[in-house]
């Protein structure tokens, strides 16, 4: 089947269309959503096995050969991310049954989630820079709807900020693509890469690199472009927040990783030093936020920003080891952030508030929830043998061997801050004696807890089974370090 | 005082058909001349909006007893289905097919599956435009 790379994009699209037809029946929507998400996961698994055995898979859409048509390229990096995104979406859909509420379910919640997955999977898979823009827009428009659906006052206020920032960043994206097109005369990413390496000494390439960093930095929340994120992400309910926190910023990071390994690797002393500096400032900004707040949502949201900083530092170091670390950390962070936001959602649902000072003593009634949350917290901080460890270890080691001492130490110290912030959250919510004693009646959280626990289990397995994941990640790193592999696979030379 | 817009309503009835015909013409011309599903759809919804201005929402709804949101889904299904048809023939996604046919009235005509894709675009554009206008028009 030559169309295999299309399936993780096509299945959510078809599912979304079918869901639009059956929007009246909540039951039908749930069934179709689960079937569609599960088959997306299965198709991604099959595609991953294919990429592992046969190398990079490409589809020239409409049978037009590579630089002229749109090419979908599934290399190991993109399929790993597509698989992770699909699994997270499946868990979030299952979690939504109980938590999202009937009003939202009737108002096109499930189709929009499928459209979001379509945009995310498409962004990971496309091999055309303008097509990347289009998939970004699909993803963003779905996220506009998701952030405002339910239309509470805070959601309306924050959605205006969110839409404004993203409309501006999309406009800059179009301008940047226009510049790139006028310089290289191509939109196919492999072709652009080949063209750029012919004129790599031109300063306009560096200008373009910085322009793209600004664009993707706005999407991926890098210092000083992260200002919109804490407010906007606090507005929607937990499952939507889990989707945003684990997928949206990571697509920005993926785009930076892709463009900086494929296009802009020629003027590294300038671009990568800039990126490294921004990465460290991002970590510091995230750490300050994570330590300052006493609110479940805000602590977790600022942890997104810290992770973005760590990932960006890994990209900026740009050795084989650091890129491998970045990939390990990227996948780990997607899974564990989704798990943490889902668990945080349960905590907020039980306590009836997201304010830490007002809750406490949950461990007595919800021991499983408590220990799972602690496990996820340790994974987030990168305690071996859990999943965050390998990625950070590789990033830090690469940083030290490249002489980036300050950066590596900042990354290490940031782990302490992450650990402190989430364990503090755990202590406050679960250990502390509450001001008002908890009601004796236990709230039913089973159907909420299982999808979140599955993600935590996945994260633990990912950490313990690093050895098994290693060959996959190294295959992805190989393509990133040697862009010729990617170019040859697409242009078939 | 009740306004009397008999001239407006009479003219609208005639002009409505002129606009619709022009829209259909633009839609079918799209492959060889400027036009296509997007302008065709916009113009069609322009014609319906003209009727809404001349009469009122209720009357127009009786005339077009379709749910425009349903039209969006149908259009998406057409477009995605045309592209996904290539899966059955095991050719790359979005591959189109065309051929020349001898039709009774039109003579030698080229038929292209891109037209089906465009039909989807046409329906989605009508659906989206009319849903926006209707929703804003009906909200108090």
Q: How would you characterize the overall build of this protein?
A:
The complex is a heterodimer of chains A (493) and B (140). Chain A is mostly helical. Chain A has one domain (4-491). Helix content of chain A is 77%, strand content 2%. Chain A has a two-stranded antiparallel sheet with strand order 1-2. Chain A is globular, with a radius of gyration of 22 Å. By secondary structure, chain B is mainly alpha-helical. Helices cover 68% and strands 9% of the residues of chain B. Chain B contains 5 helices and 2 strands; from the N terminus they run ααααββα. A two-stranded antiparallel sheet of chain B has the order 1-2. In chain B, helix 1 (6-29) packs antiparallel against helix 2 and helix 2 runs parallel beside helix 5 (114-138). In chain B, 28% of the residues are buried. The mean pLDDT of chain B is 90. The chains are: A mainly alpha (493), B mainly alpha (140). The A-B interface holds A 1-3, 6, 10, 13-14, 16-17, 20-21, 23, 59-63, 72 and B 69-70, 72-73, 76-77, 80, 84, 86-87, 90-96. Chain A: One of its GO terms (biological process) is ATP synthesis coupled electron transport. Chain A: Its main location: membrane. Chain A: Residues 128-414 form the NADH:quinone oxidoreductase/Mrp antiporter transmembrane domain. Chain A: This is Cation:proton antiporter. Chain A: One of its GO terms (molecular function) is NADH dehydrogenase (ubiquinone) activity.
Layout of secondary structure:
The complex is a heterodimer of chains A (493) and B (140).
Chain A: H1 7-21, H2 26-54, E1 57-60, E2 71-74, H3 76-99, H4 102-106, H5 109-125, H6 129-148, H7 153-184, H8 189-198, H9 203-220, H10 229-234, H11 238-262, H12 268-292, H13 296-317, H14 320-351, H15 367-381, H16 388-401, H17 405-431, H18 446-464, H19 466-481, H20 483-491
Antiparallel strand pairs in A: 1-2
Chain B: H1 6-29, H2 37-54, H3 57-63, H4 68-88, E1 98-103, E2 107-112, H5 114-138
Antiparallel strand pairs in B: 1-2
Helix pairs in contact in B: 1-2, 2-5, 4-5
């Amino acid at each position: 089947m030559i169309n295999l790379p299309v399936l993780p994009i096509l299945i959510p699209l078809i599912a979304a269309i079918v869901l639009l037809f059956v929007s009246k029946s909540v039951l039908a929507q749930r069934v179709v959503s689960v079937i569609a998400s599960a088959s997306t996961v299965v198709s991604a698994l099959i595609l991953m096995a294919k990429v592992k055995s046969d190398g990079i898979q490409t589809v020239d859409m409409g049978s037009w050969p590579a630089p002229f048509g749109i090419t979908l390229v599934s290399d190991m990096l993109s399929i790993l991310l597509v698989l992770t995104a699909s699994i997270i979406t499946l868990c979030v859909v299952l979690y939504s049954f109980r938590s999202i509420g009937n009003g939202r379910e009737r108002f096109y919640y499930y189709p929009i989630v499928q459209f979001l997955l379509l945009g995310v999977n498409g962004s990971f898979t496309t091999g055309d820079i303008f097509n990347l823009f289009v998939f970004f827009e699909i993803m963003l428009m779905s996220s506009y709807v998701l952030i405002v659906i339910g239309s509470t006052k805070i959601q309306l206020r924050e959605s205006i900020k969110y839409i404004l920032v993203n409309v501006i960043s999309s406009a800059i994206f179009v301008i940047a693509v226009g510049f790139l097109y006028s310089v290289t005369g191509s939109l196919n990413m492999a072709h652009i890469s080949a063209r750029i390496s012919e004129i790599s000494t031109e300063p306009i390439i560096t200008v373009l690199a910085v322009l793209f960093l600004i664009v993707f930095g706005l999407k991926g929340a890098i210092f000083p472009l992260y200002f919109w994120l804490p407010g906007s992400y606090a507005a929607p309910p937990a499952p939507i927040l889990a989707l945003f926190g684990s997928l949206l910023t990571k697509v920005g990071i993926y785009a930076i990783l892709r463009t900086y390994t494929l296009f802009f690797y020629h003027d590294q002393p300038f671009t990568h030093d800039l990126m490294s500096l921004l990465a460290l400032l991002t970590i510091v900004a995230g750490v300050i936020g994570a330590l300052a707040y006493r609110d479940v949502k805000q602590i977790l949201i600022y942890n997104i920003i810290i992770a973005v900083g760590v990932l960006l530092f890994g990209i900026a170091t740009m050795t084989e080891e650091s890129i491998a670390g970045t990939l390990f950390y990227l996948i780990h962070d997607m899974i564990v952030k989704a798990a943490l936001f889902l668990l945080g959602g349960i905590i907020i649902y039980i306590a009836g508030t997201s304010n830490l000072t007002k809750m406490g003593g949950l461990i007595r009634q919800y021991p499983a929830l408590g220990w799972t949350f602690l496990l996820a917290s340790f994974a987030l901080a990168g305690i071996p043998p859990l999943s965050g460890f390998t990625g950070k270890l590789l990033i830090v080691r690469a940083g030290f061997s490249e002489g980036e001492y300050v950066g590596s130490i900042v990354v290490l110290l940031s782990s302490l801050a992450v650990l402190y912030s989430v364990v503090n959250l755990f202590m406050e919510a679960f250990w502390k004696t509450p001001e008002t004693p908890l009601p004796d009646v236990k709230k039913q959280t089973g159907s909420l807890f299982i999808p979140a626990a599955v993600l935590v289990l996945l994260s633990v397995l990912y950490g313990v089974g690093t050895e098994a994941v290693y060959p996959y990640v190294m295959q992805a790193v190989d393509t990133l370090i040697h862009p010729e592999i990617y170019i040859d696979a697409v242009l078939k030379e | 005082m009740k306004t009397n817009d008999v001239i407006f309503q009479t003219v609208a009835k005639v002009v409505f058909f002129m606009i619709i015909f022009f829209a259909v013409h633009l839609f079918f011309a799209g492959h060889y001349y400027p036009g296509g599903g997007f302008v065709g759809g916009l113009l069609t919804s322009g014609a319906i909006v003209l009727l809404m201005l001349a009469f009122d929402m209720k009357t127009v709804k009786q005339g077009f007893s379709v749910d425009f949101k349903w039209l969006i889904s149908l259009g998406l299904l057409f477009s995605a289905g045309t592209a996904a048809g290539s899966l059955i023939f095991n050719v790359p996604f979005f591959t189109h097919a065309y051929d020349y046919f001898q039709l009774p009235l039109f003579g030698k005509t080229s038929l292209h599956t891109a037209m089906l894709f465009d039909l989807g675009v046409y329906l989605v554009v009508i659906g989206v435009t009319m849903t926006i206008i209707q929703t804003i028009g009906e909200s108090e």
